[in-house]
Amino acid sequence: MKHQQLKGILILIFLFQYISMFGQMKREDLNYLRDGISFTMTDTWKVIANDSIGNNAYYFSAERTGLKSTGIITVTWVNEIKNPLETLIYHQQTMKNANIYRNPGIEFSSVITENFAGLKVESCRYTTIVKEQKLDGTIYCFNSTKKTITIFFQTGLNDQRINQKAFSLFQQTFNSRD
Question: In 3-state terms, the chain is what percent helix, strand and coil (to 5)?
Answer without folding.
Answer: 35, 45, 25
